[in-house]
Amino acid sequence: MTSNSCFKIGFILGLVFVCTNAQEKVFNVHSYGAKADGMTDDSKAILNGWRDACKWNGKATLLIPLGEYMVNGAIFKGPCNGSAMTFEMKGVIKAPTDPKIFCNEYWIRFQYMNGLKIKGHGTFDGQGACAWGKHQCATPLPFTVGFYFIKNLIVHDIHSNNSKGVHINVFNCTNGFFRHVKITAPDDSPNTDGIRIGYSNNIHIVDSNIGTGDDCISMVAGSQSINISGVTCGPGHGISIGSLGKLSKNDVVKDIHTKNCTFINTQNGVRIKTWASSMTGMATNITFEDIIMIKVSNPILIDQQYCPTGNCKKQGSSVQVKEVTYKNIRGSSSSKVAVIFDCSDSHPCNGIIVKDINLVYNERDGPATSSACENAIGKATGIELPPNCLKKS
Fold it and tell me: Where would you find this protein in the cell (predicted)?
């Protein structure tokens, strides 16, 4: 049958026209020898299926049916011949536990494509417990899924469990949409960021649940036009911008909008962090609004003395933080100091706008919350709990 051809089915009351499109094709990895027994390495079978799907001159779907697929590592490369590629995952893809792979940068990687959809209610299982605390490499533990140099990316209804390192790494991508993504790892799992974004623009993350041992979402250098909405974060370190200014000059993060999110028992809520160094950079045009905090240790935080190792040289950060708005943020803080603006003395935070902040502290030693400001310039309006400490511009 040729493309877009039709056939007729006769009924007593009339005719129904059924059209097919031969340009759409499904490539089932079982046809390529995938065992789906959770033990056999199915990497070759899945990559061979991808190879043929990528060659197809039309819409192609690589189908991962129900079952458990052991994959020791895979790079899904483009560009592809068709108009769009779909990776439909219904089963579970499991990472190996062999320590030999702990020093690899990645586990699963998609790259150099225009038009990619990942869907199917399946799960990437990083089996990270075998690696946490046992890492002896110069490089970080491998991320679970990486998207590199991709335009027009859609990821929805996918789970990622127990990544060895970062769960989802987005690098140099344009026009990305993540929806109904569920990411889980224990709160003590090291460096298991949920979604990390760098050098990418127009990325949307909506209606998702992320609980990890590190940032739920982190936006590092080059992140622009990022929109986050309807995300529940916890456990974890919150939603973070940075860190900026550690190794490279002119790190920039701008045009970030986080709205309608909930943080539950997280270490931080909404955070901007920069290293105290001579490296220049900027974080600007950032909005956090309509946020609920539930027993969050640091609900609102700008930290320009970021130094997780504790042995950094004390100096002013050269990264400029400006034009940051906090609006309608409410709930509870598990520490008395609910708002911290610890800004650089050489590059003070400018244009900080705080409106309708209502964060209470309900522990035994008192109901009051407080704020702490260093070199932070801006204005506050509406509800001020804790009381505002900004310097007026």
Answer: Secreted, Cell wall
CA atoms of 183 and 201, how far apart (whole Å): 22
d(CA 357, CA 229): 19
192 by Cβ neighbours in 10 Å (0-12 / 13-18 / 19+) ranks as buried
* 3-state SS assignment for residue 33: coil
Q: Is the peptide bond before 235 cis (omega within 30 degrees of 0)?
A: yes
* Closest to 168 in 3D by CA, of 201, 190, 144: 144
Q: Give the separation between CA 315 and CA 380, rounded to whole angstroms.
A: 28
- How far is C-alpha 166 from the geometric centre of its chain's CA atoms? 9
Burial class (CB in 10 A: 0-12, 13-18, 19+), 353: middle
Q: Are 57 and 85 in contact (CB under 8 A)?
A: no
| Coil vs helix vs strand at 384 | strand
Report pTM. 0.92
DSSP 31: G
* Sign, Cα dihedral of 176, 177, 180, 186: positive
Closest listed residue to residue 126, CA positions, set 163, 89, 168, 167: 163
Which tops the pLDDT comparison, 46 or 104? 46
Tell me the pLDDT band of 78, cut-offs 50, 70 and 90: very high
Strand partners, 74: 108
The CA-to-CA distance between both ends of the chain, in Å, stands at: 71
Active site residues: 237
**pLDDT over threshold 50, residue 307:** yes
What pLDDT digit, counting tens, does each position of 145-161 carry? 999 999 999 999 999 99
User: Could you please report the per-residue DSSP string of 85-136?
Assistant: EEEEE-SEEE----GGGTT-SEEEEEEEEEEEEEESS-EEE--GGGTTT---
Residue 3 is predicted with a pLDDT of: 39
State CA 74 to chain mean position distance.
20
- Domains along the sequence of the chain with CATH: 215-393 (2.160.20.10)
**CA 361 – CA 363 distance, rounded (Å):** 6
d(CA 258, CA 290): 9
